[in-house]
Amino acid sequence: MKDLIQLAIPGFVLLLVAEVVVTAIQQKDYYELKDTSSSLAMGIGNVIVGFVGKVIVFGAYSLVYQFRLFTFDMTQWWSWAILFFADDLSYYWFHRISHSSRYFWASHVVHHSSMKYNLGTALRQTWTGTLSGSFLFWIWLPLIGFSPVAVMTMQSISLLYQFWIHTEHINKLPAPIEFIFNTPSHHRVHHGSDLAYLDKNHAGILIIWDRLFGTFEPEKDRPTYGLTKNVGSHNPVRIAFHEWIEIGQDLRRAGSFGNALGYLFGPPGWSHDGSRKTTKQLRAEQRESQQPSQNQHIELNA
Predict the structure, then answer these.
(1) pTM, 2 dp
(2) pLDDT score recorded for residue 154
(3) pLDDT in the model for residue 5
(4) Which residues of the chain are under the pLDDT cut of 70?
(5) How does 95-120 read in b/e, with b if 16+ C-beta sit within 10 Å?
(6) Residue 241 and residue 45: Cα distance in Å, rounded?
(7) Neighbours of 300 (CB within 10 A)
């Protein structure tokens, strides 16, 4: 089976170089040498780990496929159409849960660790995602009858699409496209560390899932890219494993089994003693801080 991502690497490199040149000509701040070097190192590491990861995924899908409920004929166009929507919905929930469960966030955080937003950031990929079980979000597809090769091909197509949306050089596209598809504007929001943008726009190809499930946020101001607490290092090993290391530290001080579960599977930012805040808690605090001024405004107008 040919790996579409590996075949696309020369194209990734050419587009990346082109964006660097345009950025330099326009004298924008979209690139920084150390940051881009880290992104490329993470991408190379992801490809290397992927040689083993794809064997694991293909084996798991093949095993489940033996117990399939139906068999989709992949020579028919409508089978690919159904698989497209099923894969994209699977990606949405994988992505959303990767932001709401620290176990999956520990791998996904790598992609958000850059404080820049460019085509190099698209290549900043996890080394631990497959090994920690991210492929399980797609395991239902071979179970209902899609062949492992077809599922993995559609996953690659989704990732290929998501490469080009990592750019600040494209502003807004025509309204019908912005309404249906994930675009650079929508995905810039997703990479923002601003409170209004946290945990929004989890789409792969279609933004309709975010609109349907209440996680859509339009781009209003230019996002502040990176994490709410940035890694502070360009070392690829540090970037790849820093959240796993911090989870281990939290587990050692958890004090109870319940707290340990919270640190491992709870939302990022959860703490048993309130020393850190989740996105939900930060938004609640923001609403509370705004409430007095709103009440005061009502009293003044009374």
Answers:
(1) 0.94
(2) 98
(3) 87
(4) 1-2, 292-302
(5) bbbbbbbbbbbbbbbbbbbbbbbbbb
(6) 13
(7) 7
